[in-house]
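Amino Acid Chain and Its Fold in Token Form
===========================================
What this section holds: a protein sequence and its matching fold, both as plain text.
Structure line: whole-number tokens from a learned vocabulary of local backbone shapes, matched to residues.
Purpose: to set a sequence beside its fold so the mapping can be learned.
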Amino acid sequence: MTLSSSIQLSQKLEAAGAAYIHVSSGGLHIEQKIEVYPEYQVPFSQEIKKALNIPVIAVGLINEAQQAERILQARQADAVGIARGILYDPRWPWHAAAELNQTIAIAPQYFRFQPRGATHLFKAYPNKIE
């Protein structure tokens, strides 16, 4: 597949009712030769995003909070996939929120895990979805 064919497929998926597009160049076959470096797949998500009206998710060695935030602020994607980061550190979102000085909504049972150095980090998750 090429970027052009990926854009065409994404547009067809959007027209068929897809909720979002998760952009990856694969890497599933041993004979694929993909140069891997931080954010190596973000340019694909950026180009696909330009052609769509539904959210686009970027991946590709997005491991740091500031890096993910920069991608979102630059509107290269609407969300970032951090699967390997989560496998390595299941509390990656908590650490990212602390680093970015943000507050996150969590279930009340997790309040006892709030880090002492980041007492602003958690707020109660709403009891109902609005």
Notes: The domain at 3-88 is CATH 3.20.20.70 (TIM Barrel). The chain has five helices and five strands.
